[in-house]
Amino acid sequence: MSMAALFRGYRNFYKRSNKHVELSLVSYRSMASKTPVGFIGLGNMGTPMARNLLKHGYPVIATDVFPESFKDLQDSGAQILDCPAEVADKADRIITMLPSSPNVIEVYTGPNGILKKVKKGTLLIDSSTIDPAVSREMAIAAEKMGAVFMDAPVSGGVGAASLAKLTFMVGGVEEEFNAAQELLTSMGANAVYCGQVGSGQGLIQD
C-alpha cells in the first residue's frame, strides 16, 4: 500500500473519530441539561412554573414553607424537601419565586437558606419581584460562596405562568444568560437580557 493511501485512510478514520467525539459531546450536553432543577416558592405563580419545567423533562426538587402548597406538584412528579438548604445540596440550578424582599433574604441567607449548602458554580435565578438593591445584595452573597445569582422577574400573571407565556427580564452576568435562558424559556415565551444584576427588577418596576 502506498504512503498516499495510508494517509487517506488515516484522514478518513480521524474524521469519523472526530465526528463521533462531537456527537458524544452534544449528547452529553443534552443529558446534562436535564439534571435536577431546584424550585423554591410554590405559590400561585411558582407551582405552574415548576410544573412547566417537569413538562419539559427537567426533574424538579422543590420546597415551600406551606406544606399544603406542594401536594399537586408532588403528584406531578416533583421531589419535595424540607428546606432551601436541602434543595441547594441536591441541585446546581435553582429558581426562586417568592412574595417579597424579606422572603428572598430569608430563603437565601437564613439559617436553612440556600447559601448554607450551595455548591460552587450553582446558578441561582430569582423570579420574585423585589427591591433591585436586594437582588444586588444576594448576588454579592452568592458570589462569596462561588455561586452565580441572576434576577429574572416576570411580566405576566397566573394565566401566563400556566400557559408558559411569561416574559422574563433578566439581570446578571451576561456569560450566564444562555444557561438561564434554557430554563426560563421552558416556563415562558421570552427571556430578555437587561444588563447587570438588578436590571431586570428595575425594568419590571418602572
Automatic annotation (TrEMBL):
Residues annotated as signal peptide: none
InterPro entries: 3-OH-isobutyrate_DH-rel_CS, 6PGDH_NADP-bd, NAD(P)-bd_dom_sf
GO MF terms, alphabetically ordered: 3-hydroxyisobutyrate dehydrogenase activity; NADP binding
GO CC annotations, alphabetized: mitochondrion
GO biological process: L-valine catabolic process
PROSITE patterns from the UniProt entry: 3_HYDROXYISOBUT_DH
6-phosphogluconate dehydrogenase NADP-binding domain boundaries: 37-195
Protein name according to UniProt: 3-hydroxyisobutyrate dehydrogenase a
Species annotation: Cyprinus carpio carpio
